[in-house]
Amino acid sequence: MQTPGPTAGGFCVRSPDKRSRGYASRMRVGVYVDGYNLYYGGRSHCGRGTSGWRWLDVREFVENIIRAQRGWSGYCVSRVVYCTARVDARTNPSAHGDQDVYLKALIGSGSVDWVEYGRYVARAKSALMAVEDPVSRRPVPVTSRWPVMVQDANGGALPNSRFLVKYLHLEEKGSDVNVASHLLLDVLGGQVDAAVVVSNDSDLALPILEARKRVPVGLINPQNGPTAGALKGSKQDGVGGHWWWTARAQTFKSAQLADPAGGQSRPPGW
To answer: N vs C: which end of the chain shows fewer Cβ within 10 Å?
Structure first.
């Protein structure tokens, strides 16, 4: 899925579309977003059951942060690549429908220029039944004890037996690889003069390291926690001019799409 970005002849140009923000500059910024990392980051800040943050304008979200960190001047966001995967319609039809509306809104409004799809994999897996330790917050296997006891074939009690369960495991695959691929293709191909990566996935350490040798890179951590150590560095690494930013709840809430956007209406509760 693609819509034209605000570029022409390799330079960012003035456009009547409000998404271009009216910038005229030779510093073309490419933005590379891990959609699931961004979504779960917003949820960790704002709360799963709350409204007012999911209808996120990705371009505005990033541009607000670039302006706030004040490290770059004379820039424009020339390309926003949003990497995600389709929610499985069989296991969660409601979420699948809401996601479809949101993706159409992102493209239709010009909030993103390209959506790159990975895969959403549903598998049956086996694991020990566990509960969360109230102090350490780490998982602790559940063992048999009264009033729930396991018996052997002769009716004898088997205390401290562990329970093995089969469960539905849903996993998004490919977004980190797609972020890395688009980042390096654009940097090595000379399509951008600077890059912003929206993710706190440490698997992106190597491609971000290589990108920093060639262009300034901004890293936005959308998670409610510290930036992954492997993604840290120095402002002077490589070509220099790098920066790091950690989002907050207000960062999400202050960058919402119009309603409707791109011909799509905000889903209820969003």
So the answer is: N
Give the other-Cβ count within 10 Å of 195's Cβ.
Answer: 28
Tokens 């293709």 -> residue = 185
Which stretches of 73-161 are assigned E, i.e. beta strand?
75-84, 114-117, 119-128, 130-132, 139-141
- List, for residues 11-50, the tens digit of each pLDDT value: 464 333 434 444 344 799 999 999 999 999 999 999 998 9
Phi, psi dihedrals of residue 44, rounded to the nearest 5°? -65, -30
As a whole number of angstroms, the distance between CA 41 and CA 45 comes to 6
Distance CA 214, CA 60 (A): 25
Of the CA atoms within 13 Å of residue 108, those in its CB half-sphere come to 15
Query: Do residues 126 and 169 make contact, with C-beta atoms less than 8 angstroms apart?
Result: no
Cα angle, residue 221 at apex, residues 247 and 29 outer, rounded to 5° = 95
Which amino acid does the sequence have at 206? L
Q: 258 is written with which tokens? A: 């119009």
- pLDDT tier for residue 129 given thresholds of 50, 70 and 90: confident
